Amino acid sequence: MSDKETFKQELDARTAEIEQLIGTYLPEETGHQKTIFEAMNYSMKAGGKRLRPMLMQEMCRLFTGTLLEAVIPFMAAVEMIHTSSLVHDDLPCMDDDMMRRGKASTWAEYGEDIGVLTGDALMMYAFETAANAFETSIDPDELSRIGRAMGILARKTGVYGMIGGQTVDVELAGGPIPGDKLEFIYRLKTGALIEASMLIGAVLGGAAEEDCKIVESLAAKIGMAFQIQDDILDVTGSQDVTGKPSGSDEKNKKTTYVTLEGLEKAKKDVEQISTEAIEELNKLPGNNDFLEQLIRALVGRQK
């Protein structure tokens, strides 16, 4: 079996494990508000790479050699936040996409009003889920790290992170966006949650402060490469593979890295930024071959 096939098997196995872990935190579909629980679970079970919880898990393993119990609620929480952003992105007032991951987007399935509420519900439920980490220890140092992780998750989600980037993106939609503002949008809208994931994994894993700074820089590079590749796939991808309509950015007259720099330069820059990310990874103590392979795989992904 080739190294690529071995990695694919390992990736599939770890994705399935994460899927199972996330499933344990999803709400039961009962009660008068059953519809919102159904819509939340519909959104969460639509699939996806589970990249953010996987990066969090592997960063913890880099520093500890194992997956700590306190990390698991945060893995579920960060995926809930990511999913909430996708639910809102698809709304008619945003990207107006009726398909997500090969099936009807949440608002298309449940209506625009429930779509808004589902995104809100998932974001709030994420913090309720993350707070379960406090039940995993009574050690003051560990509890302090969990508190710090909660702060990271909130900051990287809010106005200084994902929502801040989304705001600038919405304000500038439909017109030309200069390169510095596009980089700002990508760093916050996409990069912030990836930074949160990796930084939380490192913090809960007991990483030293200087190593946390390297992790944040590494994660920012991964986020930028990931978003540029997303722009490339919007031009070159097939709906059968990506699970969403091609040309969505062009339809919405969005400025992307591809429209600014051209397709070939975008491809070269993804490769360059990813190489720099691997160099940052190699500065950290410990070893995690799977994490390095995962970062490399993001560059060549087709969905």
UniProtKB/TrEMBL annotation:
Any Gene Ontology biological process: terpenoid biosynthetic process
The reaction(s) this protein catalyses: isopentenyl diphosphate + (2E)-geranyl diphosphate = (2E,6E)-farnesyl diphosphate + diphosphate
A cellular-component GO term for this protein: cytoplasm
InterPro entries per UniProt: Isoprenoid_synthase_dom_sf, Polyprenyl_synt, Polyprenyl_synt_CS, Prenyl_diphosphate_synthase
SUPFAM superfamilies attached to this UniProt entry: Terpenoid synthases
Cofactor: Mg(2+)
Molecular function terms from GO: (2E,6E)-farnesyl diphosphate synthase activity; metal ion binding
Keywords, ordered alphabetically: Isoprene biosynthesis, Magnesium, Metal-binding, Transferase
Top EC group: transferase
This enzyme's EC code(s): 2.5.1.10
Family membership noted in the UniProt record: Belongs to the FPP/GGPP synthase family.
Name the UniProt record assigns to this protein: Farnesyl diphosphate synthase
Protein's organism: Enterocloster bolteae 90A9
Organism ancestry: Bacteria, Bacillati, Bacillota, Clostridia, Lachnospirales
